[in-house]
Amino acid sequence: MAGSFVDGLNTLLTVGDGENQTANGTQVQCLGAIQHQTFYVFLLIPSVVLTLMFSFTWRRQYKARDVLMGRPAFVYPMDIMSRSNRFSYAAAFGAVTSLCAEVIFESLYAIDYAGPTYLKVFIALLSMLIYGIDYMPLFTSISVRNPIGYGVGSLYAWMFFVLKLYRIFRCEYEPLPLGILILSDVPELLCLAYLSISLPVRFGQSLYKRIKRQSTDPESMTAMVEKIQNSYQGIRVRKLLKRPDPERKPPTTLVGKLMSLVYLIHTKLIYQRSPDFRYSGRFLSVTVVSAILIYQTTIKLLVGFIPLFVLLEEYMGVLLAGVGFEPEDGEHGAVTMLRTALWIGLYFNHAVRICFIVSVVVAFVVSFVMILHSMASYRTNLLAVYRGDTTNLPPRESKSNPSLLVGCMRFAGYQIGYTAWAFIIQLCLVLLVTIVLAVIVTMFEWGFGDIFIELLMNAWPALLITLLVNVAQTLLAKFLFLRDSSRSTAIDNRRVFFILVYFMFFYNIFLGFISCLLRILKSVVIGALFMARLDQSTLPRRFEFMDPGFSAYVGLIYTERAHTHPVAIVFTRILLAMYYQKLKKKYRVKEESDVNSEEYKTRRRHMKAQSNWMMLYTLHNNPQLQCLRKDYIDMSRNKFRRVKDSVSECLKTPEKRRVSFVNIPMIIPMTYKDEHMSLEMENADDLAIHNSNERQITKF
């Protein structure tokens, strides 16, 4: 793994000296006591056992619920729609980033294979499956949200953290290679350190809440409502219900305009945190993996290629010393030409080394900035579709539901793959431009610049005419042919305009050839720059459906809108809070009162009368529901009539009134699962719901 990278670096740094070589001249290899393939193959045994153990902590929701008390059930490594434990998921994915990169770039498989090359792709897929099973207990321990899961996850995080430290410090490397190895693995070490600390803390918190829940009463309605209000979905809904602030008048003074400009630049360039929005754990995980992958690739490129440039420079220096640094009297012309070529090679090697360093750094900075812009664009687009604004995305009706869900499934892998390819393309493009500039500077430095001067002298008239014609057309259109250039396109001086258009026809043909080259150049530059941005399609609007990356992003946005809309989440949580309060009140009344007592019967009659009056008020304000109420009563009496025609005729009534609900849970049937009762809360324990039964709330 990381050791092979440092071993290769040691080989480059120790070429020519015998400090780290044996008597027969071979390089001493650092072999660890834990073999990579052996470790991950044998890790399958505890991983499968722990995953099965986690499955017994959950209950089945639909199939054979009475068998073994509904256990075992399927457990998942990650809830991709949830905002809970998002940093833990991001850290867990960050801890496996280098492993995935080594499988792809270094062919580090979980199984030793020496067969045909065309079968290596299947070995790579099998290795990915093995690695996924090995790390599944770490992810599942976060998703199960119970003391057992957090305890097992803590042990797993400690194991991988200690193993990573052992693989770094197992060999006595030189200080420089060891420092580079630590620098390359810093992100992975930070992720494992975060998990090693956060999971034990959550284990203690979960155990404390479990004990506290058994000894205290359930939360009151006021506490539940306050918790909903303080959640990020509640803050979003409260913000929507507030009256928007009046638009500020544009400043008229110079100081006011400057302050407005500074504020605009600040909001555009600096990320502004929004308390009513949270990134999903999946999106944060993808962002962290992309950033770590680019960071480690940058380190390996710089560390791997710079020693090669140094070795090449030393080799040419040795040749130059053999030929002689200065010309001598009477030497052969071939020797003089060889000396000149070696000096030019040394100069160009130094220039290319600087170009390579600059290109790698520029590609890293651009990729990192694009990752940050993707985060801001994701928030903007998701909040826009919450409002129903699809300006930046294709309409919802343009894609089928299966295509949207498939796009959501593909997004994570596509985003990481596109980011890696964008980094490589940007590196090659910047390197090409800088090398061309280095060649030009080198030729001028050594007296070969007359060729470029001659080319420039031949091309400057065409470039100047192109510039002048474009500027002239713009100025004439603005000041001569438009009556009011700021308001309309009404043409003035029509005869002169028609004459100019006739003669410009021939000039613009020439300009079209140059403009086409500029269009190609802009397409290449912008396409390479925005390759990692899946929120921006590189194809025209009508052909966006042919862009698989953009289709994956659209599927992600629309799928998350359907499952994480803050208004729907808050509405459902309020219904659940009301329902639980009603259940708690009902059970308390049964415990405190005798069922056959007169007081209990009187209270039941009052509750029934109150419900009937609320139903009457609701049906009076919503006549469209009256037919549904009648048909529901008929169906509840086991008549099973055909009510399709009567319901459709009733719903076709032109009368439309304002919908007004007094007691919403009394007329709305809703099915929910306790397994997903967190409803985007910080913790599933917030509503004191156990992952047990599926309940049907149908109160009419």
Describe how the helices and strands are arranged.
Layout: H1 2-13, H2 36-42, H3 44-55, H4 86-95, H5 97-105, H6 120-144, H7 147-169, H8 175-184, H9 186-215, H10 221-230, H11 232-241, H12 254-269, H13 281-323, H14 333-387, H15 401-445, H16 450-479, H17 494-529, H18 548-564, H19 566-592, H20 598-621, H21 624-636, H22 644-651, E1 670-673, E2 694-697
Antiparallel strand pairs: 1-2
Helix pairs in contact: 1-8, 1-13, 3-6, 4-9, 4-13, 6-7, 7-9, 10-19, 11-19, 13-14, 13-15, 14-15, 14-18, 15-18, 21-22
Contiguous low-pLDDT stretches (5 residues minimum) are 15-28, 654-700
Radius of gyration: 35 Å
Shape: flat
- Number of helices in the DSSP assignment: 22
Strand content: under 5%
Considering DSSP H and I runs of 4 or more, what fraction of the residues is helical? Answer: 55-70%
- The count of β-strands is 2
* Nearest-integer average pLDDT: 78
Strand order of the largest sheet: 1-2
Structural class: mainly alpha
End-to-end Cα distance? 64 Å
What does this structure look like?
The protein has helices spanning 2-13, 36-42, 44-55, 86-95, 97-105, 120-144, 147-169, 175-184, 186-215, 221-230, 232-241, 254-269, 281-323, 333-387, 401-445, 450-479, 494-529, 548-564, 566-592, 598-621, 624-636, 644-651; strands spanning 670-673, 694-697. It is mostly helical. Residues 15-28 and 654-700 have low confidence and may be disordered. The protein has a two-stranded antiparallel ribbon. Helix content is 67%, strand content 1%. The radius of gyration is 35 Å and the shape is flat. The longest helix is centred in the middle third of the chain and has 55 residues, at 333-387.
